[in-house]
Fold these 4 entries.
Entry 1:
Amino acid sequence: MCPLYVAGLIGPGDRKSDQPIAERLATGNYDQLHHFIADGVWDATPLESELLNRADRLVGGKDAVLVIDDTAKPKKGDRSVGVAAQYASSLGKAANCQTPVSLTLAHGEVPVMVALCLFLPESWTANVSRLKRARVPIEHRTARSKPEIALAEVDRAMAANAGCVLADAGYGLSAPFRQGLTERGLAWAVGIPQGVSG
C-alpha cells in the first residue's frame, strides 16, 4: 500500500485523504489503504538514516548548505493532524492548513530533502482528546515552535556534511534558534528583520 499511498499524495487530485486516494487509485482496496494509513506503525529511523547517508553522498560537503524552511499546505477539514487556521506563506494569508518544517541538503542546483516534521499548533497540543483521537504519538504531543522542531531535526541531520545552515526570517527572529545553531558549532545565515537583536 505504501507506493499506492505515495502516488496518491503526489499525484493529481485536490483531496489527499485515504478515501479519495482509494477511489482514484485502489478501486476496491479502501479498507487496506485505510488500515495502512490509520494503523500502520513502523520505526522510520532506519529509513531516515539511509536517506541522510544517500543525500550526504550525493550533495554533502563543505560547499553544501542545509536549508530550513516550512511550507503550509492548504487542507480542508479539521481531523487531519496539525490542520488549523494558521499563516500560509504560499497564500499570503491565514488559512486552514498543515505546516511541516523541512530540512533540505543542497549543493549547487541539487536539493535533497532530508527531514520533514509536522508542526502542531496550540489548538492541537492543548487538546489531549483531539491528540488521542488522531493517534498522535505521545512523544509528539508537547507544544514546540517551528524553530524548536528545526533544531531537533538539525541534531538528527548532523551526520550529513554541510558548510552552512540557511533559514528565513521566520526562524531568524528566534534568538534561541540562532544561539542553538552557534552552540552546535554550525556556520549559519538567517534572515533577521531590521530592529531585531540578540
Note: The CA atoms of residues 122 and 143 lie 7 Å apart.
Entry 2:
Amino acid sequence: MKKECEIVQDLLFGYQDGTLHKASEELVEKHLKECEECKKVFAEMIKDKEDKSKQKQEIDYLKNVKRKMSKKNKLIVIIGIFLFIIILFNIGIFAYYYHEAGKVEIYLDDDITEEQLDEIRNTILGIDNNAKFEYYSKEDALNQMKEKFKDNGDLLSGYGGENNPLNAYIVVDTSIENVRRIVNLEESLHGVKKIINVLDTNPYLFIFSKAMIEIQNN
C-alpha cells in the first residue's frame, strides 16, 4: 500500500464525519478520484455506516414498540382491575339488595287478635312453607327506634306503654318470587296495617339510603 493511501485511509473517518481541515479534505477528495482501492474502502465505510444507522433505527423502533406495548399492557391491567372492582361492587350491591328484597315487614294493627295473627302466618306458609318469621312487639319496635336515636334519646323518653305510637310487626324471610304474592295479600289480611318491602326500590338508591342511615347513626 502506498504511503499516500495509508495517510488518506487514516483520514477517511474524519472526512466521512466532516471534521477535517480544508487542506486535508481537499487531499482526500483528490486522492479518491485517482485511487480505486481507497475509493472502494471509502464506499465500504459508507455502506457500513448506513447499515449501522439502519440497524440502530430498527432497534429504536423495536424499543419504541416495546415501550408502547408496555404502556398499553399497564393500561389494560389498570382498566381490568378497575372493571373487576366495579363488578365486585355491583355483585355486592345486588347480593345485599336481593337478600333484603326477600324480606317483608308486616305491620300489625294494635287490636289484632291471636286468631288473626295465626291466620297471617298460615296464609304466608301457604305461599312459602319454608318462610321464616320474626315477631317484634310494640315495645321491641320502640326500643329499636331508641337505639337508632340513641344520641337523642330524650326525644323518645316520654313514649312507652299505652303511649307507644309504634306498631308491632313481623319480618318474613322468604324468596323474591314469593314476596310479590305476599305483598298483594295486604288488603285481604285482617289485622294488617301495612306491608313494606324494597322489591320495587332502585338497588343503588336503596344501598345509598342504608349507608346514609348508618352514617347518621354512627
Note: The chain has two domains: 3-67, 102-217.
Entry 3:
Amino acid sequence: MNAPNLTQRPPRSPRVRLGGYVILARILDKGRADLAGTTGEYRYANPIDQHWFRFTGIEPDALKAQLAEGKGDGEVLTWIAENAPLKRQPWEIQQWSAWQNERGPDGDVETLEFFAGRIAPLSRDREDVRTWFDYLDLDDHVTFGGKA
C-alpha cells in the first residue's frame, strides 16, 4: 500500500477533487496513513470528513477496508460508484462540492468562536480565512513550516 506519511507532509488539500468530490482525496490520504500508522495529528473520519460520508452513505470502516486492500484512487472511485447507498448524479456531486468548498462556520456564536479559536494560533491578522477549507489549508501550511 502506498500510504503517505502525514508526520512529514500534509494530506491533499480538501479542495482537490476526486471523482468530482472535494475532501475525498484528503480522506483517502488520512485513511491510508491511519492503516500505516503515519497519521501524526490527522484523524480519519473526523467531523469535516463526516460531511462526505453522510452525503454518500458510505461507512468509514467500509471505505477503510477498501484502502486496506491496497486500492488506488481510481479503484476506490469505482467501488464508491458501485457501493454508495446514496447514488449521486454528477450535478449533485458538483453542487455539493461547490457548497462544501465555500462553507464556513454557521452563524451561531459557539461555532464562530470555535472557528476563530482554531485560526488564532495560526494567524491573528489573516482576514481572508473564512471557510473550513481555508482553515485546513492554512493549518497544513503552518504545521509544516510555512508562514501564515
Note: The chain has two domains: 1-103, 104-148.
Entry 4:
Amino acid sequence: MLYLHNLPSINYENMKYKRILLKLSGEALMGSRHYGIDPLRLSEYAQDIKQIIDLGVQVSIVIGGGNIFRGVSGASNGIDRVQADHMGMLATIINGLALQSALEDAGVPTRLQTAIKINEVAEPFIRRKAIRHLEKGRVVIFGGGTGNPYFTTDSAAVLRAIEMEADVILKGTRVDGIYTSDPEKDSSAVKFDYISFDDVLQKGLKVMDTTAFTLSQENKLPIIVFDMNKKGNLLKVVSGENVGTTVNL
C-alpha cells in the first residue's frame, strides 16, 4: 500500500472522516496537458483513493467536465445554453468512465452512476443503491451533474454529499487551500487554515458557486479545499491532519 510505511499508526479507527464526497475538477485530469485526460494523473489519483479505501473509508466522487467541454463557454460561443449544459454533462460521464477504469486497474471496485439515463454505459443514480455500494467498499462516481441545465458540478457534489450522508466534502484542487486572493497571481496572498461560511461570503472568496455553497452551509456540511496533486494529501485530510483550508460554521 503506497505511503503507509511513513504512517504506521493509521487505521480506520483513526480516520476523522469515515464517508467522504471527493469533488474533482475536469481540469485536474489534464495533468500537464492542455486538454483531455492525462493517464498518469488518473493513475496517481487512483492510487491515492485506493489508500483510503483500503483503510475502510467510504468514497464517492463527482468530477467536472471542463477538460473536455464546459457548458457556459459553449453557450458563450453561440450554442444554446441548455444544449451546451447537456454536452457538459456528457463530458463528466466520459471523465467518470476514465476514472472508473483507473480505479479498477488499481484493484478498487467502482460503480459509475449518472443523473441522466445512459444504461448501456452506467447505472442510473439511485440513492439507496449508491449507499449500499459505499457500504460494500465500492467507490461510487456520480456523472452527469444534477441532470439539469444551469447547475454546476459543484451543486451536484453538494447535493450528492447530502444524499449520501457524507461527513465532509473534499474539494481537490491544484491550490493548497483558500487564500485572501489568488496565490498564483498575488504573492502576498495569505492562506486560511480555517474559515467560516459567513466569512467566505463576507470576504467574497471563491470556493464554490453560490448555489452549491449555500446548500452546503444550510446543511452544515463542512468543505475542505486542498491540493489533490500532492501525493498522500488525501490520506492526511481524511485522517484529520491540518491540510488545506476547512470551511465550517
Note: Helices lie at 39-54, 71-76, 81-105, 127-135, 153-163, 197-203, 210-218, 233-238.
